[in-house]
């Protein structure tokens, strides 16, 4: 046992505070696997935790960071042994269980996934929760039976983490991808990932009609609120939309019209407590289906000690693509 470096969120009379400091390994929470964290990443939820903008953190002190890759150091779990490379996303890590922005983590082995063959730990965190969620959305579209020859697919929040990976996955699968973004100058970036069209998010972010012109057969939405309502209103008959985010808000100001007049389906995506079989399938498919060269173009790297300044940036929509946090 010893100490290691970690970002720690505390709560006092003046509110939430964040510090990069030494943390005692003896103070880690219960778990049957101890992991030397080598990489993490930055997600929208991490921004909320780092800044205290939303009550994501529900235990103090808390080490934020909702996903990591690393090497098993100690294990009482039958599936893992020292030296195994593993990945973790979700399960309340960084919210109710001490998280990933640290050099050590102790978690339940049932939360882990073996590092998929074909991915490095760094690539796994370039994917991270955002990319893993994008794959769950794609799997939901597949399970519903919608196909590229049914029409275009729209991706909202396309310049963000979920959106960037979704654009790359859908384009490689043969879809005509319409990428919605409000960031000036991102057209070349998104077309490089495979987007066929760029749509200004202003067309979707303001209140619209209950039903609009049928424009796409499917959608992946990471924005929520009015944007999702407009995506639904413009989805073709028997189309489907997978919803996984709330960057614009948690509300959904829509009507039953798209559902009962066009047979549109809205599929909710929960990446936090996904059962192990689907979780492992998603990671296997990511290793197989994601163009790793395109993943590299959407990825930037920072050191662990730099994480604290990035929370406000991701909440303000100033982070493009994926950020890998180099922990080791």
List the helices and strands and how they pair.
Blueprint: E1 3-12, E2 15-24, E3 33-41, H1 44-51, E4 67-75, E5 85-89, E6 104-107, E7 112-114, H2 121-144, E8 153-155, H3 161-172, E9 177-181, H4 187-193, E10 197-200, H5 202-205, E11 216-221, H6 225-233, E12 235-243, H7 257-261, E13 265-268, H8 276-289, H9 292-297, E14 299-303, H10 311-315, E15 322-326
Parallel strand pairs: 8-9, 8-11, 9-10, 11-12, 12-13, 14-15
Antiparallel strand pairs: 1-2, 3-4, 3-6, 3-15, 4-5, 5-7
Helix pairs in contact: 2-3, 2-8
Q: What do these coordinates show?
A:
This protein is an alpha/beta fold and 328 residues long. It has two domains: 3-115 and 298-326, Medium-chain alcohol dehydrogenases, catalytic domain (Quinone Oxidoreductase, Chain A, domain 1); 129-268, NAD(P)-binding Rossmann-like Domain (Rossmann fold), CATH 3.40.50.720. It has helices spanning 44-51, 121-144, 161-172, 187-193, 202-205, 225-233, 257-261, 276-289, 292-297, 311-315, and strands spanning 3-12, 15-24, 33-41, 67-75, 85-89, 104-107, 112-114, 153-155, 177-181, 197-200, 216-221, 235-243, 265-268, 299-303, 322-326. The strands form three sheets. Strands 3, 4, 5, 6, 7, 14 and 15 form a seven-stranded mixed sheet that branches. The chain has a six-stranded parallel sheet with strand order 10-9-8-11-12-13, sandwiched between helices. It has a two-stranded antiparallel ribbon with strand order 1-2. Strand 11, helix 6 and strand 12 (235-243) form a beta-alpha-beta unit. Helix 2 (121-144) packs across helix 3 and helix 2 (121-144) crosses helix 8. The longest helix has 24 residues, at 121-144. It is globular, with a radius of gyration of 20 Å.
């Amino acid at each position: 046992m010893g100490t290691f470096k970690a970002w720690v969120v505390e709560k006092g009379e003046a509110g939430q505070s964040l510090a990069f400091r030494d943390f005692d390994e003896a103070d880690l929470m219960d778990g049957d696997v101890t992991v030397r964290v080598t990489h993490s990443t930055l997600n929208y939820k991490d921004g909320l935790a780092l800044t205290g903008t939303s009550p994501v953190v529900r235990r103090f002190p808390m080490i934020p960071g909702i996903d990591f890759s690393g090497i098993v150091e100690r294990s009482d779990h039958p599936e893992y042994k020292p030296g195994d490379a593993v990945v973790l996303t979700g399960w309340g890590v960084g919210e109710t269980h001490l998280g990933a922005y640290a050099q050590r983590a102790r978690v339940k082995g049932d939360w882990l996934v073996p590092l998929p063959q074909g991915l490095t730990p760094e690539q796994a965190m370039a994917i991270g929760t955002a990319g893993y969620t994008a794959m769950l959305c794609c799997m939901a579209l597949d399970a519903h039976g919608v196909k590229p020859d049914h029409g275009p697919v729209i991706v909202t929040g396309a310049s963000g983490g979920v959106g960037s990976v979704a654009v790359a996955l859908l384009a490689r699968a043969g879809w005509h991808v319409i990428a919605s973004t409000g960031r000036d100058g991102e057209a070349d970036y998104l077309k490089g990932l495979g987007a066929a069209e760029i749509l200004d998010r202003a067309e979707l972010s303001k209140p619209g009609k209950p039903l609009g012109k049928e424009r796409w057969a499917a959608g992946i939405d990471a924005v929520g609120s009015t944007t999702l309502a407009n995506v639904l209103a413009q989805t073709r008959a028997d189309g489907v939309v997978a919803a996984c985010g709330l960057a614009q808000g948690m509300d959904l100001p829509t009507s039953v019209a798209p559902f009962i007049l066009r047979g549109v389906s809205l599929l909710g995506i929960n990446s936090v407590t996904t059962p192990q079989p689907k979780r492992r399938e998603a990671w296997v498919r990511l290793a197989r289906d994601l163009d790793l060269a395109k993943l590299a173009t959407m990825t930037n790297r920072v050191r662990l000690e730099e994480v604290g300044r990035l929370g406000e940036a991701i909440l303000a929509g100033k982070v493009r693509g994926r950020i890998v946090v180099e922990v080791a």
